[in-house]
Specification:
Blueprint: E1 2-6, H1 10-21, E2 25-29, H2 33-40, H3 51-60, E3 64-67, E4 79-82, H4 97-109, E5 115-119, H5 127-137, E6 143-147, H6 157-162, E7 167-170, H7 174-188, E8 206-209, H8 211-242, H9 246-254, H10 275-289, H11 294-317, E9 326-330, H12 345-355, E10 359-363, H13 368-374, E11 381-383, H14 387-391, E12 396-399, H15 411-417, E13 422-425, H16 432-437, E14 441-443
Parallel strand pairs: 1-2, 1-4, 2-3, 4-5, 5-6, 7-8, 9-10, 9-12, 10-11, 12-13, 13-14
Helix pairs in contact: 1-3, 8-10, 8-11, 11-12
The chain binds nicotinamide-adenine-dinucleotide.
Length: 448
């Protein structure tokens, strides 16, 4: 099929490359000219496994093209995927300007041919209907709007696109649903040739529903995942007060299949480009609908509080005196496996420590370049080339992202580099018995 992907970011590029690798013709349109020029040269704007390889492969096979002109591709497309950003406004509402601009541009170029417009961006409930009205008002008739929320995770975007847990298709137009099922058939049936992921020995479940339900499914999924994290963090805070160990508690909880062992890691809380904005948006959507979501409000509050509790821990470990001290921060990405620092708890903690007069030596395996952009022009922060470089001469070392390689650092060497052997683990990553035996003063979340 011939597809236009509007917005070549994490979601658009990953989705489009996967669809191109399945034999479709994919045209990417983005308003950022530099991004388009870079992609034409084979340069990927973010760090994500397999994306560069797929970009090279699909460029070689002639299945993809990049442009900033809608007019060259929309009139001949069977499907148009909207994958533009839906960032938050300061009041928590969703900023829909990119989506509205995209639909306007699409509307200006639609031809008489039947076109399925697929909304992959995470949008408030009712948005599909609004987009439909916009196009209908502009005189278009031969189109359908399908809500097809995206669940890929940064760090495993290609794998998640090829082997998703489910595919949700929301529409009231069966003709459009048929087109989408045909497009996704190789994924649903797990029939594709690749060396990237192991195909699953089963079909991918398909959920056919209305636009509104599909839109809500995306928000509800993220809200549930953040609820799980805020829940375990709340239990961790109780564990700290009563002398229990949250890692043992979480392990036992997770063995109950009704609960499951995922997203039960206590720490400094959730962040990233999706969770915070989506939970705040759902809170707003609920409020606008006339329902006060008490649980969601607490999920957000527990998460905000968790960072401040961690700062208090750092302050206590340093004798209530942060000013003038240098602290090594391991991890700036919002989670391991990505270079994304959007709404990263680590960045918030660094900013707070700087405000309190600390100097920072930061290290991250992937995300330092992005961190430099958001922590710009601050002479009190040094970006380091290794964890050992960061540890040299500092008063404490803190762990803020759960990069697996931090587990296996040479802590004997780290200790010899530190000014004082203080280790504050915001992700409960380190073997506490091992570091305590080495003579570290060790703090974690929900365990002694
Ligand atoms: P992104 O910011 O990485 O990419 C968005 C792209 O859209 C940018 O390249 C931007 O230049 C382009 N763009 C903006 N306005 C445009 C327009 N009018 N025409 C053409 N291009 C335009 O965003 P993302 O992380 O890929 O997220 C996209 C959507 O998917 C969001 O709604 C997000 O909530 C959702 N989502 C993201 C993830 C994730 O892990 N990043 C996962 C699931 C869902």
């Amino acid at each position: 099929m011939r597809i236009t992907v509007v917005g070549a970011g994490y979601v658009g590029l990953s989705t489009g490359l996967v669809l191109a690798s399945l034999g479709n013709e994919v045209y990417f349109v983005d308003v950022e000219e530099k991004k388009i020029e870079d992609l034409k040269k084979g340069l990927v704007p973010f760090k994500e496994p397999y994306v560069k390889g797929l970009l090279e492969k699909t460029t070689r096979s002639g299945n993809i093209e990049f442009s900033n002109l809608y007019s060259t591709t929309i009139p001949n497309s069977d499907l148009v995927f909207i994958c533009v950003g839906t960032p938050p406004k300061v009041n928590g509402e969703v900023d829909l300007r990119q989506v509205k601009k995209a639909i306007k541009s699409i509307g200006e170029c639609l031809s008489r041919r039947f076109t399925v417009i697929v909304v992959k961006s995470t949008v408030p409930v009712g948005m599909a209907k609004q987009l439909k009205n916009t196009l209908a008002k502009a005189g278009h008739k031969n189109f359908a709007i399908v809500s097809n929320p995206e669940f890929l995770r940064e760090g495993s975007a290609i794998k998640d696109s090829l082997t998703p847990d489910r595919i949700v298709i929301g529409s009231d137009q069966s003709k459009a649903v048929k087109v989408l099922i045909k497009l996704y058939r190789p994924i649903i049936k797990q029939k594709f040739e690749n060396i990237i992921v192991e195909r699953l020995p089963r079909e991918i479940p398909l959920v056919l529903t209305s636009n509104e339900s599909a839109e809500l499914i995306k928000y509800a999924s993220n809200a549930f995942l953040t609820t799980k994290i805020s829940f375990i963090n709340e239990i961790a805070n109780i564990a700290e007060n009563v002398g229990a160990d949250i890692t043992d508690v979480a392990k036992a909880l997770g063995l109950d299949p009704r609960i499951g062992d995922k997203f039960l890691d206590a720490g400094i809380g959730w962040g990233g480009s999706c969770f915070p904005k989506d939970v705040r948006a759902l809170h707003q959507i609920a409020g606008n609908s006339g329902y006060m979501p008490v649980l969601l409000k607490s999920v957000i509050e527990v998460n905000n509080e968790q960072r401040y509790r961690f700062l208090q821990k750092i302050s206590k470990a340093l004798g209530e005196n942060i000013e003038g001290k240098t602290i090594a921060v391991l991890g700036v990405a919002f989670k391991s496996g990505t270079d994304d620092v959007r709404e990263s708890p680590a960045i918030e903690i660094i900013n707070k420590l700087l405000e309190l007069g600390a100097k920072i030596k930061a290290y991250d395996p992937l995300a330092l370049e992005n961190a430099k952009k958001v922590l710009k022009n601050n002479s009190d922060i040094t970006f380091c080339t290794s964890p050992y470089d960061a540890a040299k001469g500092v008063s404490a070392l803190i762990i803020t992202t759960e990069w697996p390689e931090f587990k296996n650092l040479n802590f004997r060497r780290i200790k010899s580099l530190l000014k004082s052997p203080i280790l504050i683990d915001g992700r409960n990553l380190i073997d506490k018995d091992m570091v305590k035996k080495l003579g570290f003063k060790y703090w974690a979340v929900g365990r002694k």
